[in-house]
Q: What sequence folds into this?
């Protein structure tokens, strides 16, 4: 008898591409992958692997690394297979979220509850006395109930509106504690059989790790769900109320409803922005759009006191005001946090470009909102890149990643250099160099460190592909050597220039005392040429090394990242899928987000001047923290999510990929930009940037040597990162600032 593991081992050994499928006419079609994708994406729906990692059974001790580099990933459809395969391609942006719509019936009960419309009375008794419900009373319940109590006597005074006055009294008591109560219309009972709860449902379902059940291995002696039918006496058919023909309805719409519409809209917006209180937003929206427009005699509020053998639908029923899992709530594939921050982007643009003289908002406020606005725009750019890459062949995906992969950072750097050129100051150049170094340090130390800590808390020890990490480490060494070569050249052959030197008059034996000494960056050699040819040479060699790394990992040695992508539904291929964003929509989002990113970067650099001039904090610290790491927050979140799934390899690749792109793509592009439009950018860094970067690369390569990590190693990386931040915090400001 052949085991599942053996079948999967044989299946994984075959190099298969994504096979053609027959999508639904209404679904978005996806072109077949490029032939180069064969090295990464083996989508075999008939193969099911029980574990996320293949076992080194027949590889032996010498072939351990080769065996552990093979990874089995479960996906729902062909597009998700491409997205997962792109995550393992060097130079491609890593993306955790799904780019296709997942059927709600395939998700766990926890995730299903996130998307419920608060209209189901549960069959089992649920405790409603929770900490979140008590907080609701203090945040929303008391003042919502108070408004109803104030409107109640007003409606009674109109005499004709007395029925609505009674409704206001009942709703005042309801909103003070709405949990465990139902609002329903008499004669509208809808019930349906109860399904047994899935005890194996995972709360991580929303991210794509549903537990898969193999039908062939299912136990035989398991009772099937039995529909429960409870005889309910037939209720008399009620006649349709003619509430729109009553005077009381219009009194209510004139005196009561407008005030309550404002109250419920405010409560809905506030609870929606808090994310974890979205059930309160749904409750207020349902009351505003449905309950308050019903006839008063049709509004019945009942307390759920006993457990029924079936679930039934009502107009409104809420059990929880707070749900911690709403951080994974999405709308059209867009995360709720990115969606809630989108209005801030437009508010920032309106405030920034209409209040240039800062009559209403200070420059510091505009700078803060502009920096925060970069976070959701970076998320939209990342999702657009992932969507296009997952629906296109390898060539298109590579072009999109190369074009838009660094657009967030490049937009800020170029606008800052232009601002410094217009202001005729070198301070902005130093800020850009600090931001470049800060991104490098954060991606080398902080992102891997925080992922190791969070992943190590959940998993005692995590293993990663040491060969792929070795490629990234080698490229990091090349990058650091190339980027800081002009700095070493300047310090070796440059002239030491001091601003002021003093000596005791008449005493030649006393040495001179010099202050503010530095090396001249524009050094002349024997051929009377500036050091710029060295910079141009490096700006050509670094992208060439990056291209060689792409060829090495994607073509000649693609087995380093070799993965096996298996169908996650027990061997049945699902060709029917609908992507959240089509290719044209994703391209439009990329273009719009890039334009908005340029505007926010312009506002941030324009309003940072008061902070640089009057802040007591070193400009170095501002550059390596706020300007460097805020745009990378979506990448940090992706890395943490990978680590929680015990996929620390991708977590490490997130930071390494960004660090390599900073040195091998972004800095050469800045040099190229400066060659065509001279903004005074010179590739010579200060000593603190030089030694901090070299030390960080050596440390991270030492930790990556053994191919395994835990929370202690992550703590070491984070502590070193914090030490370097303290060094920048207490460092004096650059001379040009």
A:
């Amino acid at each position: 008898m052949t085991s599942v593991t053996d079948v999967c081992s044989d299946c994984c050994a075959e190099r298969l591409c994504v096979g053609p499928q027959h999508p639904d006419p209404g679904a978005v079609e996806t072109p077949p992958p490029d032939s180069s994708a064969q090295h990464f994406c083996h989508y075999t729906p008939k193969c099911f692997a029980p574990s996320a990692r293949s076992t080194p059974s027949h590889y032996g001790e010498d072939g351990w690394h080769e065996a552990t580099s093979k990874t089995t990933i479960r996906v729902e459809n062909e597009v998700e297979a491409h997205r997962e395969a792109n995550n393992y391609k060097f130079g491609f942006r890593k993306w955790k979220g799904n780019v296709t719509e997942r059927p709600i019936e395939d998700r766990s009960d926890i995730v299903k509850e996130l998307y419920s419309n608060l209209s189901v009375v549960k069959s089992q008794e649920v405790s409603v006395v929770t900490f979140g419900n008590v907080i609701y009373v203090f945040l929303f319940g008391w003042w919502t109930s108070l408004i109803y109590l104030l409107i109640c006597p007003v409606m009674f005074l109109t005499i004709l509106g007395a029925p609505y006055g009674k409704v206001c009294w009942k709703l005042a008591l309801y909103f003070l504690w709405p949990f465990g109560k139902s609002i329903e219309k008499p004669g509208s009972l809808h019930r349906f059989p109860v399904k047994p709860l899935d005890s194996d449902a995972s709360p991580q379902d929303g991210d794509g790790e549903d537990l898969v059940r193999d039908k062939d291995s299912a136990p035989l002696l398991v009772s099937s769900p039995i529909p429960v039918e409870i005889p309910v006496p037939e209720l008399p058919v009620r006649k349709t109320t003619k509430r729109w023909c009553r005077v009381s309805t219009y009194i209510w719409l004139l005196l009561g409803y407008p005030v309550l519409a404002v109250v419920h809209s405010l409560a809905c917006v506030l609870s929606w922005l808090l994310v974890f209180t979205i059930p309160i937003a749904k409750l207020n929206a349902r009351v505003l759009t449905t309950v308050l427009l019903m006839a008063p005699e049709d509004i019945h509020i009942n307390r759920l006191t006993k457990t029924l053998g079936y679930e039934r639908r009502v107009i409104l029923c809420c059990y929880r005001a707070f749900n911690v899992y709403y951080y994974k709530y999405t709308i059209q594939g867009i995360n709720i946090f990115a969606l809630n921050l989108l209005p801030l982007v437009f508010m920032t643009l309106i405030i920034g470009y209409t209040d240039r003289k800062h009559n209403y908002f200070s420059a510091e406020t505009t700078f803060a909102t502009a920096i925060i606005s970069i976070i959701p725009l970076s998320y939209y750019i990342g999702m657009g890149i992932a969507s296009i890459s997952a629906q296109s062949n390898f060539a298109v995906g590579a072009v999109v990643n190369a074009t838009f992969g660094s657009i967030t950072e490049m937009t800020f750097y170029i606008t800052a250099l232009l601002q410094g050129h217009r202001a005729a100051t070198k301070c902005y150049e130093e800020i850009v160099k600090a931001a470049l170094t800060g991104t490098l340090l954060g991606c080398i130390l902080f992102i891997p460190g925080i992922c190791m800590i969070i992943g190590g808390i959940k998993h005692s020890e995590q293993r990663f592909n040491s060969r792929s990490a070795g490629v990234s480490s080698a490229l990091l060494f090349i990058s650091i050597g190339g980027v800081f070569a002009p700095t070493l050249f300047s310090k070796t052959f440059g002239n030491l220039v001091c601003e002021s030197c003093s000596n005791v008059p008449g005493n030649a034996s006393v040495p001179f005392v010099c202050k503010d000494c530095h090396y001249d960056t524009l050094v002349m050699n024997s051929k009377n040429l500036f050091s710029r040819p060295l910079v141009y040479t490096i700006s050509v060699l670094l992208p060439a090394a990056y291209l060689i790394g792409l060829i090495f990992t994607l073509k000649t040695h693609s087995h380093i990242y070799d993965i096996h992508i298996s169908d996650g539904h027990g061997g049945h291929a699902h060709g029917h899928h609908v992507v959240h964003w089509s290719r044209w929509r994703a391209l439009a989002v990329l273009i719009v987000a890039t334009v908005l990113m340029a505007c926010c970067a312009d506002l941030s650099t324009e309003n940072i001047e008061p902070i640089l001039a009057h802040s007591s904090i070193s400009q170095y610290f501002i550059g390596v923290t706020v300007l460097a790491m805020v745009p990378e927050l979506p990448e940090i979140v992706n890395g943490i999510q990978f680590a929680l799934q015990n996929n620390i390899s991708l977590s490490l690749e997130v930071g390494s990929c960004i660090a390599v792109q900073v040195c091998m793509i972004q800095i050469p592009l800045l040099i190229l930009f400066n060659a065509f439009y001279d903004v005074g950018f010179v590739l010579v860094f200060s000593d603190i940037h030089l030694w901090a970067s070299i030390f960080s690369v050596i440390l991270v390569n030492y930790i990556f040597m053994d191919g395994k990590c835990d929370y202690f190693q992550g703590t070491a990386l984070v502590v070193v990162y914090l030490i370097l931040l303290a060094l920048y915090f207490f460092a004096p400001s650059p001379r040009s600032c």
About this structure: The longest strand covers residues 496-502. Residues 416 and 605 are 5 Å apart (CA to CA). Confidence is low (pLDDT under 50) at residues 1-69, 194-233, 523-529, 570-574. The two ends are 75 Å apart (CA to CA).
